[in-house]
Amino acid sequence: MEAFDKGRNRIRSVCAEALDQNNGEGVILHSGLFRVEGMEPDRGTAA
Known about the structure:
Distance between the termini: 31 Å
Number of domains: 1
Number of strands: 0
Mean pLDDT: 75
Strand content: under 5%
Structural class: mainly alpha
Radius of gyration: 11 Å
Helix content: 40-55%
Number of helices: 1
Largest sheet: none
C-alpha cells in the first residue's frame, strides 16, 4: 500500500491517458505501460 500511495498520482495519470487513448473502454495496465514514452507525466510532449 505504501508504494501505491507514493505513486498514486502517476498511476492515475497513466490510467487516464490509457482510457483516453482507448476511448473509455477497459484497459489492463502492466508495469511496462508506465515506461512507455509519452505515458509518463514528466516525459513526452505537453498536451
